[in-house]
Structures are given as C-alpha cells and as structure tokens.
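Run: sequence + erythose-4-phosphate -> complex structure.
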Amino acid sequence: MKFFVDTADLAEIRDLAATGLLDGVTTNPSLIAKAGRNFIDLVAEICEVVSGPVSAEVAATDYETMLAEGKHLSKIAPNVAVKVPLTPAGLKVCRALANEGTMVNVTLCFSAAQAILAAKAGAAFVSPFVGRLDDIGQNGLGLIQEIVEIYNAYPAFTTEVLVASVRNPIHVVESARMGAHVATMPPNVIRQLAHHPLTDKGLSQFVADWAKTGQSILDQKLPVRD
Ligand code: E4P
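>> structure
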C-alpha cells in the first residue's frame, strides 16, 4: 500500500519524506487556505520534496474553467496529479486531461457508482472519503470494500483506490486488508501507525538491560575475516 500525506504543510512534508515512507502528497483547497501560501509556489516546492504524485485541486466547478485550471496546474511539475471533483463536469475534465497524459485524482467520492464513473473517465486515482461517511453514520470502509471488489472484477480499470478522509490507523489497516492501493493520511495518523505501548515498554526494558552490560557496540572491534 502506498502512503500519501494529506497536508499542505511543507515542514511536515519534508519531515515525513525524510523517513523514506512517503509515496505522495494530497492537498485540497481547505488545506491550501490553512497554509496561507501562494498555491502554485507551494505545490512547486512540494513537488521538489516528493517525487511521487502530488495532488493539486482545481478551484472552479464549471467544465471550461476547471479544464483550463487543470492544464495550468499540470505544468507545475511532471508529478502533479490534477484533482477534480466527482461531478459530471469534473468527470469530463478528467477524461480530457487523462487523454493528454495528465494524472487525475477524482475527489469527493461517496459511492461505488461514482467510483465506477471515475474509472471510466480514466482517473489515475479515485478518492473515497471514509471519515466523512463515518461522520454521517454510514460505513466508510464498506465503500472501500465495494470499490476494490468492483475494480478487481474489471482489469481494464486501472484507477487506483486512494482512501481519503482517513482519521485513524484502523482505517489504514482495514483498507490495506481490502487491497486498496493508497491511503492519504494527516501527518498525525502516519505517526500513530508506528506506535504500540508494548513496543515502548519492551524498548525501555532492553535499554535498561543493555546499560547493565556496560558495553558499547561501536567501541568493540569487528572480527577479522580472511
Ligand atoms: C483527500 O484528498 C482529502 O484532502 C482529505 O482526505 C479530506 O479529509 P477530511 O475529511 O479529514 O477533510
């Protein structure tokens, strides 16, 4: 499973990229507003830090303007994935950009029917929002299961399932069990994945026991080999 970070905070992106665990970045207009930076400059900088797909979302909602914005955004860097909303106009833009070889992430997907349309429109990614479905009492992970099952039944669908609106490690693990290709997570969820209380407890014990030996690994000579 690929890991994308869902943020426009460049410091966080640099920090996570340095771990070697980051495969891409997703942004959205709300995250860009929070960052308070010039959109194009920020996306260009993110694209220099991360070589994988960096999603940059169009702002308009009509076909002509979305298409023009998508073409503009795609020129920032070769790894930009233009993000369009899952609307009839957005799907039309997706098809036009995909035909030109641009990666498109179709976002705001809340049903399997919408996901089928995204695949037919040639999307590189479809973004089903699990957390927002959970928030209204629907089964976010159930939607991931449905989409993975449908896409697997049609090898001609090359669209990757990008699990979005991820709120906790359970969303990530369950999506991985279902075979979703990508999860995009806020930085805190990526960090939560590494934590387990027994890891912390076990490590403290090992550190304490090692100190009792009075040894230092780096001070010891390696055996001489012939
Ligand atoms: C995905 O691309 C979206 O930016 C994101 O996952 C939305 O998450 P939220 O529901 O936490 O805002």
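>> summary
The chain has a mean pLDDT of 98. The first helix runs from residue 10 to 17.
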